[in-house]
Amino acid sequence: MAGTPLDAVRVDGDDLADLIPEVEASFAVTLPQDLRHVQTAGALFNEILRCRTPDGAGERCDTQMAFYRLRRLLVNLGLDPAAAPQTALKGQGLPSPRRVAAMIERDLGLAAPAKVISGAGCALALALLAGGAVLALWQGSGDWLALWPLAVLVVLFDRGGWSGDWATLGSLAEAVAARNVARLAAQGARNDERQWWKRFSKLLCEVAWDGSQQVSDHRLIGRHTRIELV
Asked: How far apart are CA 121 and CA 92, in angstroms?
């Protein structure tokens, strides 16, 4: 059971800038460029409704639609045909998340969630950042800070890790459904305001923080939850 909705969540300004295009793509809307008046999750959601109103049509569950399509795709890559939503994707002999994401977009015509940097990639990027800083301080030269762009390249070209949205077949299906609201609605998924809110709050949850921890349950974000930019 989810707890009481949070009074406020903290969102990095850059993360919010990344979130808006993702929301626009999922709901097939174009939000206003100036959103300074938006102070709550509900107010931001209302901007979506001003651009496009759900028609109430469709009877199919979007997560189930995404689940079965993903399973058919991944079975061809080595996934157990009997895989359930709780089936972990790690250890299934699948290609990297980076490659799977490309196949989801190419073969299924659906937007995939951003990959999660792998443990090895994260360790290497941190080592480059720390090494550049230490060497720059030790030798009194900023030349070693040139290692930092290498850390960025490591993150960009990392193959991805099987965690977060990529941890299980079910979590991946949920993430795909949240990023393809309009596409799946056009194919018969439930298309009502309640369903839209679930998908919107899922996307917002991924960039929202409650104090020092990322919000892990989208149900903790209510319409009156304030968005505090940091």
From this structure: 20
